[in-house]
Amino acid sequence: MSSRRAAGMATAVTGSLLTASFSAVMILSFTASADDQGPGSSKGGKAMDAAPAGVKLTTTLPEKISVDNSSKETAITATVKNEGIKESGDLNLLVVGFDGLKVTNVQGCSAIGEKDLPPGSNSGFKCSVGALDAGKSKSYAVDATYDLSKAGKICLPVVSADGKKTFWQQGPVPFGTTNPAPNAPATPLLLGTDNKPVAPGGDTLPKTGVGSDVLPLGAAGAALIAAGAAGLYWSRRRPSRPLES
Known about the structure:
- This protein is mainly beta.
- Helices cover 13% and strands 40% of the residues.
- Strands 2, 4, 6, 8, 9, 11, 12 and 13 form an eight-stranded antiparallel sheet that branches. The protein has a five-stranded antiparallel sheet with strand order 1-3-5-10-7, with no helix packed on it.
């Protein structure tokens, strides 16, 4: 075999190996990104007003998220499901942030005006889900910031299109960590875990938001009530007018 031919074969083999390695890296990167948030969980969720016959509505949040320690940004996937045997009818999903967790955007959804936010919350978006067929779900990409010096909670109420009934509510449920890592690029947070903030002498969580666990009813009837270990839940909301998109 000539040296020229041998060199050509070596180059081809090397190119093939590089291509295979690159493909493997791309596949692994995609898999890691897709699995980053772990399985969805309905932890902290509760059925509220009775749903139409044959309809069973729930929501899920990722088991874990990661907060960039420099930008304080994080991403969350919020999913609403119809686990029943009949179509749900038109629905809205609300995504509401509390304390250290502030919702900055929800893809395809509209911001809730400050005057229409539930008491104690700092941000919120309304998503027009429409009707969910039996067994179907719809997911939304949620952008948020998280101030790791505070607690942080998120709430997902599923309401009727007119806003008069709340069929299901997840939260306000906390994301947090009991083992903060201030020097790491990012801090992983777990669903249902109270955050232990990074602060000088910060063994105790600072008080944030309202001073009581029970929030007063608003003039329009929007409220959150204490409900055991699951935390605060969205009470029956019967506004004089629906939330404006």
